[in-house]
Records
---
Amino acid sequence: MNFNKLVMTLTHEQERYQGIVDLCGHTLSDFLQAYLSQSEQLPSCLKLFTNQHRVAGILIQKLPAEIDDDDDWHRIELLTQTITAQEMLNLSVAEIITRLYHQEDVRIYEQKPVTFKCSCSRDRIDNVLETMGRDSMLDLLEEKGVVNVDCEFCNLSYQYKQAEIDKLFINHIADEPGSIQ
Ligand SMILES: [Zn+2]
């Protein structure tokens, strides 16, 4: 049997998110790193280590920034690659971070439990579509029958049919002073 796809299913409360990517690399770290880079579209670097008792890992991701500096990212990526299993499995998080990135300006924040949050909402998508203008929305609608907006972060899909588009721009026109409904 030939396994060549990685299927990731994340379950959060009632919602399930699934991503399928080609396997590239040789280890689970490689597969997951490729998944993160392709699916989240954020350059990522992941290293996993195991002994008989535990698994330890480090994940770094390049967040979108106003000033995009690839040199900074490559330097951090190279430093991350130097971590050894011995260090990863035995040192505290603070020790690992200060040891790996000691030449950088390191700030360690208070630990917080991991929770899933996405800032997308119907209102925000409405605002984006409004700025595109009624005519281009109607063109899209004519071409596709429905306008779909997918959030790349949480996989939610927002659908706009004729009625939703009309409502969007009726509200918009009503907001303008002196307009006639
Ligand atoms: Zn979202």
Note: The longest strand covers residues 5-12.
---
Amino acid sequence: MNLSRRDLLKASGLGAAALALGGAGVTSASASENPAASTQLLPKPSGKRVVIIGGGWGGLTAARYIKKEAPEAEVVVLEKRDTFISCPISNEWLAGEVPMDFLTRDYFTAAKDFGYKMVQTTVTDINRETRTVKTTTGSIGYDYLLLSPGIAYDYSKWFGNDTQAAERCRQECPPALMSGSEHVALKKMLEDFEGGNFIISIPDGAYRCPPAPYERAAMMAHYMQKNGIKGKIIILDPKAKPAPKGPGFMAAYKELYPDIVEYRANSLVKTVDLDKKEVVVTITQEDGRTEEERIPYAAANLMPVNKASEIIAMAGVSQGKAGWGMMSSPTFQTKADERVFVIGDAVGGYPYPKSGSIANGQGHIAASHIAAMIQGRPVLKDVTLPQNICYSMLNKEEAISIGVTYSLMDDKDLNGNDIKVIKPKMTENNTRSTALGKTTHSWYKGMMSDIFGS
Ligand SMILES: Cc1cc2nc3c(=O)[nH]c(=O)nc-3n(C[C@H](O)[C@H](O)[C@H](O)COP(=O)(O)OP(=O)(O)OC[C@H]3O[C@@H](n4cnc5c(N)ncnc54)[C@H](O)[C@@H]3O)c2cc1C
């Protein structure tokens, strides 16, 4: 057990009440209780047990399909939240175009309908030698472990080791890349906004849902236009142009919101002066020279560098400073341990974007691999790789989309050995249309149906 990590979880208030739900009945413990390490979350099953950490897009997909393919196994999802709230479609909700109900699901119904168990608790440690996961409310053993814990924020580039400044920034300028209070606070900021600069800063490096901040800028501008709010949305982008590439977002900003959205390329946030309400930006010129500018804000949605959830490091299957999970196969089995899988946004080393579509596809693939291992069947070698499609709403009705298909191709490694690599191929539909707007909702409903059954 790593004490500092446990202390961190305690300090951040994550040691919440526990509620074990599903076939095993209900157990609960209050937040103030410190359960002995020997407390077992659930009785030992007669067969194999799969523990899934993270009840989001990836984890819940895997839970349903492992149980479907290997019904004899016990499948247990450990999730710290009480309610599922979707990030996809949240930008439409931010602009008041869909109700919160559209984004939320309870965890109980799907667990009951599909036969897996949901335990509301926070994971604090993983021991691969004893195959045990520790949580704030007890321990649980596993035969197979699947990690889909998503991302975490890294504010160190802006505030060094000053965790208080980082937390202040998260609360005053919520990044809203994770659902919950950050999204609700951002919506209130938009509703209270009376003019001036509303800054949206895009993270440096790999981050959750590449088109999401650009979609957010459009939907916030739509809200301002609709409500006659005079003010500017300034997008600070460390890149030279929006990802996905192509004219889609830039054309929409120009045609729909010429007086509202201002896009600034090659603009990297260096730090934030929270007292003066100024973002300090390093701007890189075309000739490589840099200059610094302080941009005042009335409100801000500042997204820091993304890294993997600390769960990946806890399991000892991470790599690099950002700590993304490292896999040995396209079925998301980790390099370090054949019993441990990583899916979703926490995956590293593959050319996959961090998207709900991909997390769902990876959940299906890992589920098949784990079910085959449980039943002693040969594991499928030639898997169908996950495919990505992301729709971005630009106003109440219109959207653009970007899709990526992936294939396994022959290649050589640095020593000239034959290897298989995953190659992406991008397709874009940058012409905004109401047809794509409608497809956005059908896609979302299809995903919710695959994960929750409705
Ligand atoms: C604004 C926005 C718009 C988006 N739009 C789209 C879109 O249109 N299309 C698309 O495909 N994707 C979209 N995404 C991306 C999508 O939301 C993510 O890629 C997806 O949620 C990743 O799934 P995941 O399972 O990896 O992580 P998550 O869905 O975040 O699930 C991780 C879960 O792990 C839990 N957890 C973490 N740590 C612990 C712990 N210690 N103990 C217990 N539980 C823990 C968390 O509470 C969380 O519920 C969008 C994202 C944002 C922010």
Note: The first helix runs from residue 3 to 11.
